[in-house]
Write a structure and sequence with these properties.
The structure is a single chain. The chain has 225 residues and is α+β, with helices and mostly antiparallel strands. The protein has two domains: 122 residues, Beta Barrel (OB fold (Dihydrolipoamide Acetyltransferase, E2P)), CATH 2.40.50.320; 96 residues, Glutaredoxin (3-Layer(aba) Sandwich), CATH 3.40.30.10. Helix content is 15%, strand content 32%. It contains five helices and 14 strands. A hairpin with a 2-residue loop joins β1 and β2. The N and C termini lie far apart (40 Å).
């Protein structure tokens, strides 16, 4: 793997090919003059934000098969940095959350800097929120299971345990993650979760099952076959 850095932009090159769609440019919706990134790290003490700008960097790459590489941009938020929403309303540091979609001005195509003039927090559709958070199944007819547990607690189930006791749960994809109240998608609020841990089972569009019992996930998966 090669790592390249220039004024806050880090590019990771991985020798791998990924199928990313059938369009001539899978990320062609992005524009040169509008650098878009997703918040991937927040340093409160250092007042820095790390953005995943992989999709924006790939905006001119032809598909359907493109190299699987990633790029990040680190922004230093200084007193003069404007933070707004799309309506132009002034926001602050506390409004920046993990996973948010943000337009960074000026884009690196115009000026290479790690102290941007403006960060515009963009609205994300529900499907985009769920997809980027890794909840949605990858194909029709399958279900992806995510176990969400309380922050600071040990993961309640090891993958080996689930593989032994409930292997069917792994077939459509499985992951476990700590609850993050500072994520743009607050699952506790979004799904009315009263207590953790909880299993969230999704198809390609929406929540199909929410339960705190592994055996209920197995029953659901078997019935869906």
């Amino acid at each position: 793997m090669r790592r390249l850095k220039r004024a806050g932009v880090i590019v990771y090159l991985i020798i791998c090919i990924a199928l990313t769609g059938c369009s001539s440019k899978p990320y062609g919706e992005y524009k040169d003059g509008e650098m878009i990134g997703f918040v991937s790290g927040v340093d409160e003490q250092g007042k820095t934000i790390e953005f995943d700008i992989s999709e924006w960097m790939k905006r001119d790459e032809p598909g359907p098969a493109i190299e699987d590489w990633g790029a990040s941009y680190e922004a230093h938020v200084v007193p003069g940095t404007r933070i707004t929403n799309e309506a132009g309303e002034h926001l602050g540091w506390s409004d920046l959350k993990q996973g948010q979609k943000v337009q960074i001005n000026p884009p690196s195509t115009e000026k290479v800097t790690d102290t941007p003039d403006e960060l515009i927090i963009l609205t994300m559709a529900n499907e985009e929120l769920l997809k980027r958070a890794g909840f949605l199944a990858s194909k029709k007819g399958s279900y992806r299971t995510t176990l969400v547990y309380e922050s600071g607690q040990a993961e309640p189930f090891e993958v080996e345990q689930i593989e032994t006791e409930a292997g069917i749960v792994l077939q459509g994809g499985y992951s476990a993650k700590e609850y993050d109240p500072n994520h743009v998608l607050d699952v506790k609020r979004a799904f009315g979760i009263k207590a953790f841990p909880v299993f969230l089972v999704f198809d390609t569009e929406k929540l199909a099952l929410q339960t705190d019992r592994l055996d209920e996930v197995v029953t659901f998966m078997n019935a869906a076959k």
